[in-house]
Amino acid sequence: MHQIIKVILDYSQEVQAHRVGLDRVASINAVSDHPNRAVRNLNFHEYVSEMSESVGAEIAVAEYFGLKNFVPTNNTYKREADIGAQIEVKWTKYTDGSLIIGKTDRINDVGVLVVGRSPVYYICGWIPIIMARKGKYHKQDGSHWVGQADLFPIKDLRRSVYGSSNF
Question: Residues 138-155: pLDDT tens digits?
Fold first, then answer.
C-alpha cells in the first residue's frame, strides 16, 4: 500500500468549499435525482453538504500540489477538469471507499481519490480514467470502481505524462 496524504483545511477554505457547494447545487435547482448521481434521495441541505465536501476535496488536492489562489469552478460540470487541464477529483466520506468513474467522466482526465470529512481529507492516489474503464473495474450500472490498492501514489502524478498539463 502506498502513502496516503493527509490535508487539513483551514476555516477560510471550509467556508469557500461550502459557498461553492451551495452555488453548485443552487445553479441546478437543488436536484440530486439525476442519472449521473449514485445517491439520488438527498434533500437540499444534504445535497449542499455532500457537494461542499467534494469541493473541500478539490481544495485539499490543490493545497497538496501547492496551487496558490486556487478557485473551485462552478457550472462547468464535466466540460472542464476540477484542477488544471485534466484532474478530476473524486470524493467519498468512506475511508475505505473506491474511486468511482461515471459515464460522463472525460476519457483523457485522471481521477484522484480523496476520502474523509471536512476539515480532514486524505488523498489516496490517482489513475488515468482510460485505465479505470477497464473491464475488471466495471459495475452493472455502467460505472467503474477502482479500489485504493489499484491507484498510483499521488506523489507520482506531477512526474507522470499527465503532470505537465496540470501544474
Answer: 999 889 999 999 999 999
The contacts found for 20-25 with CB under 8 angstroms, 24 or more apart, are 20/52, 20/55, 20/72, 20/74, 21/48, 21/49, 21/50, 21/51, 21/52, 21/53, 21/54, 21/55, 22/48, 22/51, 22/52, 23/74, 24/51, 24/55, 24/74, 24/75, 25/51
Q: How far apart are CA 5 and CA 163, in angstroms?
A: 18
Q: What is the pTM of this model?
A: 0.91
Positive/negative CA dihedral, 152, 133, 166, 161: positive
Q: Mind listing the pLDDT tens digit for each residue in 14-31?
A: 999 999 999 988 887 766
Cα four-point dihedral sign 19, 24, 25, 26: positive
CB distance 36 to 103 below 8 Å: yes
Grid-cell match 505524462, residue found:
161
> Residue type for 13, please?
Q
Burial per residue of 142-159, b for 16 or more beta-carbon CB atoms within 10 angstroms, e otherwise: ebbebebebbbebeebee
Q: Which residues of the chain have pLDDT under 50?
A: none
